[in-house]
Specification:
Length: 90
């Protein structure tokens, strides 16, 4: 199991990035959350099997069609086993 925090920068708000990320994470069986940040970036925490987290991070470098991702900063976190689904946080 792996848990990460990612900050995705670029044109990532107003382009369905959160909804698309949540849908993709759910299909992968990943739990956690995604939210917009005041600085225009998107932040997410995700927990799941290592290969599924890798697939989510790869997807985050592209995002949905209208997005333009310039940077994805990733930190590894301690696995918590507390999330039950992948949510859009506000």
């Amino acid at each position: 199991m792996r848990r990460i925090r990612a900050i995705v920068s670029g044109r990532v708000q107003g382009v369905s990035f959160r909804a698309s990320t949540a849908a993709f994470a759910r299909r992968l069986g990943i739990v956690g959350w995604v939210k917009n940040r005041a600085d225009g970036s998107v932040e997410l925490e995700a927990e799941g099997q290592g290969d599924m987290i890798a697939a989510l991070l790869q997807w985050c470098h592209e995002g949905p069609p209208a997005a333009h991702v310039s940077r994805v900063h990733v930190d590894d976190l301690t696995v918590t086993n507390t999330d039950r689904e992948f949510e859009i946080a506000y």
